[in-house]
Amino acid sequence: MFSIADFIGKYVPVIEGLVPGFTGFIGQNSPINFTAKLTVPVFVFQAKDDKKMEMKVTRKFIDRLKKTNRDVTFVEVERGGHYASMIDPGIAKGIEWMKARMKSAARLGKLAEPGGRNEYADDTSENGAH
């Protein structure tokens, strides 16, 4: 079971005092407790200097997830903290990851827009030129 102390540590008593039952709720509903059910492709991004989420907690999550999910991508960057790194380069990395999966699904015939149009199926170059 996920330990809330792994994530928010010293703040647990304060939060529990304000929101009784918080610790149990968070522990029961943490994604780390449901890794076996996460069977879709997963993208996780984190900066090594993130002070809000310890890298060891993220790595523990990734390790558990990879035991039951073959399509897990974990991207680490050196700097950017919890927020700035998500804006740049995190969002761009996530979009690249998503586009790659869409192109792959399109090539396999698993992705089409209503009416059968598939903008990715015929795209054979990196910049979209035909």
Written account of the structure:
- The structure is a single chain.
- The protein is mostly helical and 130 residues long.
- Helices cover 45% and strands 9% of the residues.
- The protein is built from 5 helices and 2 strands.
- It has helices at 4-8, 12-18, 22-29, 55-68, 84-107; strands at residues 42-47, 72-77.
- The protein has a two-stranded parallel ribbon with strand order 1-2.
- Helix 4 (55-68) links the parallel strand 1 and strand 2.
- The protein is globular and about 55 Å long.
- Residues 123-130 have low confidence and may be disordered.
Record the SSE blueprint.
Layout: H1 4-8, H2 12-18, H3 22-29, E1 42-47, H4 55-68, E2 72-77, H5 84-107
Parallel strand pairs: 1-2
Strand order of the largest sheet: 1-2
Distance between the termini: 51 Å
Please outline the major beta sheet: 2 strands, parallel
Estimated share of beta-strand residues? 5-15%
Q: Unreliable stretches, pLDDT < 50, 5 or more residues? A: 123-130
Helix/strand structural class? mainly alpha
Q: Which of globular, elongated, flat, extended, rod-shaped describes the shape?
A: globular
Question: pLDDT average, as an integer?
Answer: 82
SS summary, helix count: 5
Question: What is the β-strand count?
Answer: 2
Helix content: 40-55%
* N-to-C order of helices and strands: HHHEHEH
Radius of gyration from CA coordinates: 19 Å
